[in-house]
Amino acid sequence: MTYFDLQLFSEEFTIVTQTRPVVLCEAFCQQLYTSTTTTLVTLHTNKQHIIIILFHWGCLSATMPEGPDVEIEGEGSEGQQGLHRCDNPWKPNAQHGQSEVYRRMLGILNRVTQQSLGIFLEQARELPLSDPTHLPHILSLLLEKSQDEPMFAPIYARLCRDLAASAGIQRDLTTACEAHFMENYEQLLHYNNIFEGPISSQLLHEEILVRKRFIGHLKFMSELHKVGVVPSDQVAAMAETLLAHGDDRSFEGLCRLLSFTGLSLTRTHEELVERSCNYLETCFANGTLNPRLRFLTQDTLDLRANGWRLREGNRGHHPSGRNVRG
């Protein structure tokens, strides 16, 4: 008997089902196991007729042809190129953020919620965050998590405020935030030149991801400003940087930043807010914006007209009780 010339089992099993899965009885399963040929199982439903052919592995193993013998030659054998080995391979250690302090801080950020903030804050205070060995990796972790999860930016900002006060890392945190802003912004501006040529779907996906992460960082910076960690001058400098460029990505960043911090910036930098809103109105009136930016501009200007406060119909309704984070 060959692989393609299998004889069907002499007896046909017909199983009638309606909506539930087929459950084969023990005797039938035993007969399948001891059978040396193929069994035909016909399923009848009220909508379709399905035929399933079950091949017993004992029969297949006896009829399937064996593959060619392959000899694996070792390194340095004739006609076989050996593997290229690096003289200095990468190894995970504390310098790459794999320390126990890093892992514990990552676990805190993954589980902290509005209700459990006090509990995890006490756990974070036990960590040596001000240690120069761990501080750069912890700050990088905070910035990465906050920009990837803007929904939890208020919680992360409150956690950073209390940790900065207890561990004395507020200056390091603000410096890291400023450097992270410029790094993300330069990476975002890089796509202005790339998009002048052919655009692939992968490139478009990467640009959207970078843009979302940049907006997430703006959200985190605004929350840090609200809790008093980042000064208003630093937020104003970010707005000036975005205002100086006339590209669409900087325009979107300016709209987002104004919607996040427009109320507080109006109290300390009213002239900057006025100049930024006039710029938005001019671009909106010229009709040069794409539809997405036009809607975003209209939302920002409406927000300003309402005193930088969301209208009742546009307020987000967060679920009551514990946040869904585990």
Automatic annotation (TrEMBL):
Pfam family, one: MIF4G
Top-level taxon: Eukaryota
The entry's keywords: Initiation factor, Protein biosynthesis
The keyword Transmembrane helix appears for this protein: no
InterPro entries cross-referenced by the UniProt entry: ARM-type_fold (IPR016024), MIF4G-like_typ-3 (IPR003890)
Gene3D superfamilies: 1.25.40.180
A molecular function (GO) term: mRNA binding
Boundaries of every MIF4G domain copy: 102-307
SMART domains: MIF4G
Signal peptide per UniProt: none
Record's GO cellular component terms: eukaryotic translation initiation factor 4F complex
Family: Belongs to the eukaryotic initiation factor 4G family.
Protein name: MIF4G domain-containing protein
Upper taxonomic lineage: Eukaryota, Metazoa, Ecdysozoa, Arthropoda, Crustacea
